[in-house]
Design a protein that fits this description.
Number of helices: 5
Distance between the termini: 56 Å
Helix content: 55-70%
Order of helices and strands: HHHHH
Length: 180
């Protein structure tokens, strides 16, 4: 539990060092994720998609929280002029998988229970309403937890293991002093 608190504290420090471009990516990604989840689930009204069952009141905060977490998470993949460290690849892969699963679960959590073709095939209409619909709030919680864990891992890694700055061209490093 103590390690979790330390990771969260580190993660909260990371965005303070972000350049404006990374914040722009976070905002754009959050809006994109909100549209990606909100339009097909008809939480954002549109003429293309519809719902048979009206959305639950908790669906809107889940949409907003999912979009914000996904936006920050996606922004952590933007380079800031630093060279990636070799040890960060494994951590990034785990966080990426957690974030991907969290995003998918967010979509399934806020979607119409009888509009999901896979649920209808597996459970039928009555099963979608009596089994799937009651599970959706739990899916929402799990999706937000997965997105939060992935985001904290990525952000805390930026502070705990910062990438070494790239050497300036001609300033030494690999190949320095080699003439051709």
């Amino acid at each position: 539990m103590r390690a979790c608190g330390a990771s969260v504290r580190l993660a909260l420090r990371a965005p303070a060092a972000w350049p404006l471009a990374r914040w722009a990516v976070a905002l754009g990604s959050a809006v994109g994720c909100a549209l990606l989840i909100g339009l097909p689930t008809d939480l954002i009204p549109n003429p293309v998609f519809g719902r048979e069952i009206p959305p639950e009141p908790w669906s809107y905060p889940v949409l907003v929280a999912s979009a914000l977490l996904a936006g920050v998470l996606l922004a952590t993949y933007v380079r800031t002029g630093a060279v990636d460290r070799a040890g960060a690849a494994g951590r990034a892969g785990r966080a990426s998988r957690l974030g991907s699963v969290g995003g998918l679960l967010s979509f399934l959590a806020v979607g119409c229970p009888v509009c999901n073709k896979l649920v209808l095939l597996a459970l039928g209409t009555s099963g979608a309403l009596s089994i799937w619909a009651p599970l959706q709030p739990a899916l929402a919680v799990v999706s937000l937890l997965l997105l939060a864990v992935a985001t904290v891992r990525r952000l805390s890694g930026e502070v705990a293991c910062p990438a070494a700055p790239a050497p300036a061209p001609g300033a030494g490093g690999a190949g320095a002093g080699v003439t051709r």
